[in-house]
Every structure is written in C-alpha cells, then in structure tokens.
Amino acid sequence: MTVTKNETTILKNFINGQWVESSGTETLEVPNPATGEVLARVPISTKEDVDRAVQAAKKAFETWKNTPVPKRARIMFTFHHLLNEHHEELAKLVVQENGKAYKEAHGEIQRGIECVEFAAGAPTLMMGESLSGIAEGIDSEMFRYPLGVVAGITPFNFPMMVPLWMFPLAIACGNTFVLKPSERTPILANKLAELFTQAGAPEGVLNIVHGAHDVVNALIDHEDIRAISFVGSQPVAKYVYERAAAQGKRVQALSGAKNHHIVMPDADIETAVQHVISSAFGSAGQRCMACSAVVVVGDNEQFVKLLKQKADELIIGNGMDPEVLLTPVIRQSHREKVLGYIQKGIEEGAVLIRDGRKEMDEMPEGNFLGPTIFDHVTPDMTIAKEEIFAPVLSLLRAKDLDEALEYIRKSRYGNGATIYTKDAKAVRKFREEADAGMLGINVGVPATMAFFPFSGWKDSFYGDLHVNGKDGVNFYTRKKMITSRFDF
Ligand code: NAD
Predict the structure, then answer these.
(1) Does residue 181 come out as left (phi exceeding 0), alpha (psi in the -120 to 50 range) or beta?
(2) Does pLDDT of 337 surpass 70?
(3) What is its EC number (predicted)?
(4) Among 467, 91, 58, 444, which Cα is nearest to 279's?
C-alpha cells in the first residue's frame, strides 16, 4: 500500500557517508509479515537521489581505486568482526522484516559473513598473470583494475546475504557501490551501511538509495554506472539485463527458479522426506533454491505418505518462535497470487493432497499459508512450469530417471536440482545430464558457498559471469595486458 509520509520512521538513504532524506514524496509501509506491525516506511526515491549517490561514488572512486589492495581488504576484516559481533541483532532484523524462522535467518547471516571473508582475500584474488618469454625477449603481464561505480539491486528474500554477495567483493576489488535494496525488506541494508562505516569504509564508497522501479531505471540508465548486479524475479531480471546490456554495461542478473528433486526408488525415504520438507517449506518456499517440484520415480507411495504426514506435523507461526519451521509469505498480495495458483492447479486436474489454505483462517494476523502439496502434476500444468515462490509443492510421477531428467530439461529454469539415491550410476547420469547449474546429491538446498560461483542456468540467469567465486572477481574487475620488450 502506498502511503504519504507520517510519524512512523521513514528510512533514510545513505549517500556520501551521510544519512539523507529522500527527495521523493511517497513512502511504502514495511510490515512484519507475521504480525502486520508496521516496522518502518521506505521512501520511493527519485532519479535525483540516484544521481546524488552516483556522484558521491564517482568522487570516492578516485581515491578508493588507488587505496592499496591490502588496506581495502583490512576493512573487510573489521567488517567481518563487526558482523559477527552483531550476528544475533542482524538475524532478528531479518526475522522481523522478512518473516523467516530465526534459525534460517541465523544461517543467512552466516552465509553473508562468508562473502565478506571471501572478499577479504582481495590481495590474492586480484593477482594478475605473467609469462616471461612469450617471444624472444618479450614478456607479458596481466593486471586487474576495478571498473568504477557499480550498482546492486536486490530481492526481499535474502536481505542480508544477497547485498553481501555484491558490495564487499566489488568494493574490495576497488569499485565504489550504489545499493538499491528491496523495498519490501529495506531495513537491514541500513544496518549493513552503519557497520561498514564503523569498519572504516570511507565516505561515498558504499551508498544506499531506497525505492522501487524508478530507482532501478535511473541506475541502469546512469552513464557513470559501469556494471549492474541484479537478483530478483525472472521478468525483471530479463528486463534489467536487456536494458543495461543495450547500454553497454556489464550485467549479471540472477532470476527465478523451479527446482526439481528426483526421488529414486532406492532413496532413503526418511532422509529424502526430511530434506524435501525443509527445502520446500523452509522460508515459506521463498528461496531461489527451494524445492518446488518433486519427481517421484517408480511407484513410491511410501514416500508420498510420509511426506504428507511430515507436512501435517509442521509447526506454523512467527519466526521468532524456535519451534516454528513454516513462516508467513512476504505480503498479503503475494498470498493472493499464490491462492490463484492453487486454484489453477485444481482446475488443471492436479490432485490436492494437502490443502494449506485451511491454516489461513486459524492465523488471521500474518500472511500465513499452510503446506500445500499437489500430486499427479504433469509437466505442462501451470503449477509445474511457473515459479510460485510459496509453500506449494508439486509432485510429478516418472517411470524412470530418463523421464525425470526430461522434466528438468523441459523446464525454462535451471537454478538447481537434486537427486536422492544411493546408486552411483544414477548419480553420475544425473550429474552429467541434469539441465541445471547447481546440483545436489542427497542435499536439499545445494546453494554454493562464497568461494564458488552461484551458477544458475537457462532463464534462471542472464549474463555470463555469475556472482561469487572467481566469476565475481572477473565481473568486478577489468584486465590490462602489458607486453614488454627491452632488447634494444
Ligand atoms: P522482484 O523482481 O520483485 O524484485 C527484485 C528487485 O527488482 C527489487 O529491488 C525491486 O525493487 C526491483 N523491481 C521489481 N519490479 C521492478 C520493475 N518492474 N522494474 C525495475 N525494478 C523492479 O523480486 P523479489 O520478489 O524481491 O524476489 C524474489 C525473486 O527473486 C524470486 O523470483 C527468486 O527466485 C529470485 N531470486 C533469485 C535468486 C538467484 O540466485 N537466482 C536469489 C534470490 C532470489
């Protein structure tokens, strides 16, 4: 809901080391998804706010690019220390604004901290290459340099981890940064800026501009922005990629997903069910690596029965309660959209074996939806093809591994896929043939760590260099080749 400014805290932008009011006149509520309590209001900033932030970052770049790499890395060590010190406070903020369970929020803080650890390795990561004697008396060297001002646009579902996929590495590589956090979870980003400044980051090196699509467009179109890192839904990822690439910018745009988990007949059923439950319903299914489709190979009624039983036993509630696994979805409007998908699933002939709508009435305060499971879903059904991003799981049936792999191939998305089996031959076939970028073997959420690329395929990613790992370093640096001869 759009509201005009009133007495509730209106978040400020962070520009040139100062907290400044947005020049926009509109604000949006930031409600706690579990209680509806309005935590803050986020300003809808303007093109002028973006320009101010970019000018600050541009000025800061002149000094920052010449700051020795080990000195830049040392700020990451201090930042790392501060993040660890504030671990609990950060996790609570994530629970409040995103709604996920405290344990998951804790895990998210840890994943974010690991990105800072990785960025602290900048002196090694930024090393170039050299070869003496490429021809008689001639040597070649490659040095890495930062790009300039770069921008990050982030989604609601990982308010800590996703910004930390971006700005620590970009900044350690010598760039300066403008972050546009999700307008649905903007609060934690300001805390990150506070801690980063406390860690010794000079003014203008990290800037934050809150807002929505106007801020995104202004960042993409700004002539002084060299690269855009984006994470969000598929239509927006494609739009950002195309619009920024058309202007000659470097872009990495991480997008939506539909992750298939194959349950082979020999799988350990208890383990498979436990992983599917936690992957599909943890964070209310709002993870780009969540299991949203299970392919049951063979006639495995025992798996389906146990899955339904464990879904029935799930504790639903506020993420601050340590017993809770299933938390609310981000907004009422999102839940409305999800209800539309459930209706569509029924109309298209899928069998609703667990209806999570019944829990909605029991918990009127927050945006809750109970675990929902459809069986006998076919690959052409809407619920099998589209990302629902909620605790709604589709079970597809396949006669063998070939057919299961065919379902994955048919999907437009290719973020992740998992197989549950003890059979080495099936594992190898899955590894070689599964058409997705991050695979799990008996692992429910095969998300990669900071030192590896987060490597979605197909419509789950637009660009070529992924976030994190060496890809991230290559994305945020450009190379200069020196060829020298001194044989005169
Ligand atoms: P979203 O696309 O709604 O928003 C992402 C960002 O884009 C936000 O900052 C938002 O302000 C901006 N935005 C939204 N609409 C826009 C428009 N029309 N023009 C310009 N900018 C716009 O995504 P979300 O709902 O916040 O996040 C969930 C999505 O992100 C899911 O699809 C999920 O799969 C995806 N995601 C992907 C990954 C990955 O690694 N592939 C990781 C996390 C989330």
Answers:
(1) beta
(2) yes
(3) 1.2.1.27
(4) 444
* CATH of 260-435 among 3.40.630.30, 3.40.50.10490, 3.40.309.10, 3.30.43.10: 3.40.309.10
Q: 253-304: per-residue pLDDT in tens?
A: 999 999 999 999 999 999 999 999 999 999 999 999 999 999 999 999 999 9
The whole-model pTM stands at: 0.97
C-alpha of 192 from chain center = 16
Q: Please give the CATH superfamily to which domain 13-256+451-482 belongs.
A: Aldehyde Dehydrogenase; Chain A, domain 1 (3.40.605.10)
Bridge partners of 130, per DSSP, are 141
> Helix (H, G, I), strand (E, B), or coil: what is residue 23?
coil
**Is any atom of ligand 1 closer than 6 Å to the C-beta of 180?**
yes
| Ligand 1, atom 30: closest residue by C-alpha | 232
Residues of the chain with CATH 3.40.605.10: 13-256+451-482
Is the separation of the CB atoms in 167 and 83 below 8 Å?
A: no
Known binding residue 183? Answer is yes
Query: 166 C-alpha vs ligand 1 centroid, how far in Å?
Result: 15
Q: Give me the pLDDT at residue 365, please.
A: 87
Of the candidates 470, 258, 272, 204, the residue with the CA atom closest to the CA atom of residue 377: 258
Q: Which residues pair with 42 in a beta bridge?
A: 28
pLDDT, tens only, 409-447:
999 999 999 999 999 999 999 999 999 999 999 999 999
Q: Whose CA is nearest to atom 11 of ligand 1?
A: 212
Q: How far apart are CA 104 and CA 325, in angstroms?
A: 9
Which residue of 45, 154, 233, 286 sits with most ligand 1 atoms within 8 Å of its CB, as the best mutation to test the pocket? 233
